[in-house]
Each structure stands twice: as C-alpha cells, then as structure tokens.
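Now read this:
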Amino acid sequence: MMFAQITDCHIKAQRRPAYAKVDTATRLEALVAHVNAFRPRLDCVMVSGDGVDFGQSEEYALLQQLLQPLEMPYYLIPGNHDHRDRLREAFADHQYLKTASGYACYAIEDYPLRLIGLDTTTPGRSDGLLCETRLAWLDQCLAARPDQPTLIFMHHPPFDTGIGHMDAIQFQQADALFAVLARHQQVLHIACGHVHRDVHTVINGIGVSIAPNAAHAITLDLHPGAPSTFMLEPPAMRLFQYRGARHLVSYLSYLGTHDGPHPIFDANGQLID
C-alpha cells in the first residue's frame, strides 16, 4: 500500500494569493498533477487540514475543483483555518465526513493499513484540542480493531517543534491523547500538518511526523521570539509505503523539474568516474 499526504493548501476565493503573495491555487494544481504522475500509482491521498484560508463556501468550491482531478480516493480532515460544516457541505459526496458525533473523526477500513482521521479543531481557536467526546470515540475506535495496524492523521502536531509562534497554537492535550494510545498497541504512526515544515519525532514509541507545505513554508527560525514569516520553498507531498508486518516507511517528494536521473554505473556495471 502506498499513499500520499498533502496539507495546508490555504486556497482563497477567486484564486487570490494568500498573504498577498502566495499563488496557492496554482501550487495545488501542480501538486495534484505531481501526485497523479507518481509511479507506482498511489492508493489514496490524505489531505490533513487547512484546505482553505478562511473557511468560506466560495473557497471550498474552488478547493473541490482543484482536488477533483486526483485519480485516487482522498480523505479530508479540518484544520484551524477550516469551517467543519462548510467543509462537509462542499464535499457532500464524501460519506466518511457524515459522522454521528458531529466531529469529522472517522476510520477508513479499505486498506491493509487502517487510517483514522481526527478532527482537532474548535471554532474560534487556532490551537488543537480533543474534547472528552472525541477522546472517547478514539478509544472505542481503536478497541474495535486491536490487531489492525493503524495510522492516525490529525492537523495539529502533539509536540513542540521549536518554531515558537507555531508551538503557541499546536495541539494542547498530548498527555490525554497518548494516555488513550497507551491502551492500544496497533498505532504505528501519527501524521500531522499545520506547521508547513518537515518535522519528525518519536513519542512513547510512536513515530510522529509533520508534512511540508502544499502552499508556503513557515520559516525555519528556531530563535526564541522569532517573527511569524514564511518562505516560498517548493511544495511537497509526504509518501507512505506500508509493507505489512507493521513495517511503515515514509518519503518526501518535492514539486519541480530537476536535472536527472543520471546513471551511477556504466553499461558494464562499473562505477562512473
């Protein structure tokens, strides 16, 4: 099983640039083409929040149009820039979003690796939370299939990255989340967005990653009190390959045309010197 994660598209109405600078619509179009062109063909795509910039219906209409060319199923969760109900309205054909709890938390059971999407958003807040209802849902969801290897994807990362202005609005309940996960041994990885940077850590034996941007990159400035700024680095997708037997591998694939590939060995199998 191979699948991609894209995140933080920040689409604006009428293709307006984000922060008066970033052509997010054109970048997402190119990234969707990049996903489609990857071989071997990917099984699905996770879109891990902040699909749009202000949660407006017009923005979601454009996001739906930009994602429509994807040649494989894709699964959305909201981020802090999203509006949960308008997201559901725009993607009304995505049945997994129609959950009884009212939150966009769901499990995808169609693949060798189970995918659980967690909705960490709270209206009016930029940081991430899981209320008791969502924590209980996750606990029950994991208990229902204890032997099924699982990946969780959520917008807000449950750890400090060192980028201070992003850490101030990260997930606020890491202890509560990992208390639930400690009761279940099948979670192999947690895939996040929000920070617009490739970041990795391990918490209680579980790998946790943040995917880089589909739009703009947050400046990698680890000085205390660093300002909130961004860079126009190439968009990227994170790739995951699940090989069975709890063996999950991830990669990054950056958008762009680069010189190569070039051979390392000649026609006789000798190292080119």
Observations:
- The chain has a mean pLDDT of 97.
- The domain at 2-254 is CATH 3.60.21.10 (Purple Acid Phosphatase; chain A, domain 2).
- Residues 65 and 240 are 25 Å apart (CA to CA).
- The two ends are 38 Å apart (CA to CA).
